[in-house]
Amino acid sequence: MNEVHAVIELRITPQREIGFGKIAEKVAKYEQVEACFLMSGAYDLLVFVKGDSLQDVAEFVAQDLSTIDGVLSTATHFMLKTYKASGILEAGSEDGRLAVTP
Length: 102
What we know:
Number of strands: 6
Mean pLDDT: 90
CATH architecture: 2-Layer Sandwich
Number of helices: 2
Structural class: alpha+beta
Number of domains: 1
Largest sheet: 4 strands, antiparallel
């Protein structure tokens, strides 16, 4: 089975006296969530998820993440191809460089 991986940007409303922590903890508890980070910039949380299919991830976002109180918006980005992960090139020549084709 091929897993589908996605990165989801969440904009959330911080809660009085606890900030982003309570929502981040709730998000992080889902089994689909591989990692969750508080970010600076245009969105608040960056969430790495996996699922069995594109539909599986889409349903998780629509039914679970987007319905959490305090979540203002989501933006989902599906990972289509891996070139390098955990410091290791996934595809390339023997010298460690990526293959180039004309």
